[in-house]
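Support case: adenosine-5'-triphosphate complex. Customer-provided input:
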Amino acid sequence: MIECKKLVKRYGKTLALDGLDLNVGDGEVHGFVGPNGAGKTTAIRILATLLRPTSGEAFVDGVSVTGDPQGVRRLIGYMPDFFGVYDDLKAWEYLDFYAGCMGIGAKERRRRIDEVLDLTALSDKREAYVDSLSRGMKQRLCLAHLMMHDPKLLILDEPASGMDPRARSEMREILGDISAMGKTVLISSHILPELAQMCTSISILEKGKLTFSGSVQALENKMNASQLVIRFACEPSEAQARAAIEKLKEELDMVAVRDGLTCWRIDTQENVMQDGEALRLLMAVGLPVCDFHRERATLEDVFMEVTKG
Ligand SMILES: Nc1ncnc2c1ncn2[C@@H]1O[C@H](COP(=O)(O)OP(=O)(O)OP(=O)(O)O)[C@@H](O)[C@H]1O
Ligand SMILES: [Mg+2]
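Agent response - structure generated as follows:
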């Protein structure tokens, strides 16, 4: 649905996109993650036909964003990072106004307004003034507006920023419904854990280039690297410690690394049987083990790892 080929965007001396290659398949909910200034909004504005790339190409459903911007606009619904809504309109009037701009007929508009208000859980706010809606509701109303012309691709720039956990979870549900309707969604954020829960695939952007792109599963596999952490109630005697470290190496091929006087760490793939053997071995040597657990990298750790440049 989205194909970016070697996209470059310069703002004077600033290189915002540095040969970005991005592919998003049909029906994906794709998270576009990167720290502040990584180039997310720039890439999104190019896809939304609001900005021309310095070089490179981008296509939405095979239509070129520079060759046929009008064609692309029919295919997409774009929610900018900061959007204004007309305050003196009621929710349904707001939707009606935009649908009119898009050339949707009056009868069809009434039907679509009911559908999109229902989709975004705003039916009971139909007659409310836009002004009176909370920030999260305004964001949902904007989503409703994007759905009016039944686009194939939704492009949302940081829709979850400023939302409380409940609003985020509602947003997740709505995106789930939208995805079940067969739409493709590109959604940006600088918070990976927030996106991982609502996406099927993820790209991580750093200084205008991707440092990761793949399924959420592939991202989680990156985190499978975990450590065995062993703590002792008191410092073990040197003789015991040496004996245990040697046995761990000989019998289980585990290399224990000391982390302070009362903690050891072992880098190994998770293996319940082998972990159990290691614990038995430590107890047999008589070490005062008081804590024995696995520490996994969090999504936040992975994000820090792939954006550390
Ligand atoms: N209109 C502009 N003129 C000059 N430089 C710009 C302009 N827009 C963006 N930039 C620069 O391009 C780079 C990428 O900015 P962009 O807004 O695309 O990042 P972002 O990933 O969306 O960041 P954020 O998470 O803060 O929204 C930044 O260095 C920014 O300062
Ligand atoms: Mg941005």
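The longest strand covers residues 14-24.

Case will auto-close in a few days if no follow-up is received.
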